[in-house]
Amino acid sequence: MKRLFITGLSLAGFLILTACGNSANNKSISSLTGTVKVDGSSTVFPITEAVAEEFGKIYPKVRVTVGISGTGGGFKKYVIGETDINDASRPIKGSEIKKATENGIEFIELPIAFDGLSVVVNRANNWVDQLTVAELNLIWKAGSHVQQWSDIRPEWPSKPIHLFGPGTDSGTFDYFTEAINGKAQSCRSDFSKSEDDNVLVQGIAGDRYALGFFGFAYYQENTDKLKVVPIDGGKGPVAPSVTTINDGSYQPLSRPIFIYVKPESAKREEVRTFVNFYLDHAPELVGEVGYVALPTEAYDHDRLRFKDVKTGSLFSGKETIGLKIEDILKAG
Predict the structure, then answer these.
(1) C-alpha of 330 from chain center
(2) 6 vs 52, which has greater pLDDT?
(3) Last residue of a domain, which of 239, 274, 309?
């Protein structure tokens, strides 16, 4: 996966400051210690991993651990106080808020990028050029009778269709099933599941008759192994790209992704510094790992929300299918 190293003006400015004899500041940076525990979405993982790598170059004594338990799996740990930050590819659920409240755990919700769920097939698949939302529903709905490609369109091969998708603890699974099947978690069960999107990539790349879905970054990193399928949401087929995700034309599979920060953890200097570093560098790093950065105003909004310790959710329980970037700025 392509990586951005902090270069140019930002690093130059840092070097100038240190070279000018700001020894107190340099000592403060080098002496910062502690641990930041992050878990959650495998979709958000590439962004957080990239931030953690760059953060570690400046704050080498701070240990940042980043797990991939899935959005739901990560929230299970977060709401009982096991982690400082949860990566989430969907808003926190009401049941998770209830559990957090019972345990005295609060959260600061920070949208950090936009993603377009990508439906992909093997590069050797030469019959699929696009799919409609209705066809995706036919394939993935609970009780689906689709077993062969020809069950979708009769002119397609009479060969078994092998399905791959995120595990049921994944926010990507929740979002996809709600957008395509009308209800989160409503889905056929006979598909290969993994919370690790790299496992899904490998499965689809090795099987001519496979079809699956995951975050845009994992497709971007594997264009030599996978073929993306344009989706017709009612206005003609559109493929996911930075442009179509950004302008809202890739529907209904575009969505915001988040980090959730525990206010109690943010009282620790290493966590507070990491989150501020995250928000400062997300605009650059998000694009480098294959996602769509939010507008500058959205990150400014995040910084104020974090600085003022504004807890609670602006998105939980609200319709996020088809949410556009500008909607984030209106959320409050």
Answers:
(1) 21
(2) 52
(3) 239
Same domain membership, residue 302 and residue 282: yes
Q: Which domain holds residue 229?
A: 118-239
Contact 150, 286 (CB under 8 A): no
Alpha carbon of 212 to those of 227, 307, 327: distances in Å? 11, 40, 28
Q: Rounded CA gap, 179 and 197, in Å?
A: 19
3-class state of residue 238 by DSSP: strand
Task: Please tell me what DSSP assigns to residue 189.
Answer: S
- Please, which residues have CB within 8 angstroms of residue 19's CB and are 6 or more apart in sequence? none
Contacts 24+ apart (CB under 8 A), 3-12: 3/50, 3/53, 3/288, 3/289, 4/50, 4/54, 4/284, 4/285, 4/287, 4/288, 5/54, 6/54, 6/57, 6/281
pTM: 0.81
Q: Would you say residue 167 lies in a domain?
A: yes
Q: pLDDT tens, 246-263?
A: 888 999 999 899 999 999
Residues 224 and 271 in one domain: no
Per-residue pLDDT reduced to its tens digit, 257-288: 999 999 999 999 999 999 999 999 999 999 99
β-strand 34-40 against 85-88: which pairing, if any? parallel
Answer whether residue 219 is part of any domain: yes
Q: How many whole angstroms separate alpha carbon 269 and alpha carbon 250? A: 40
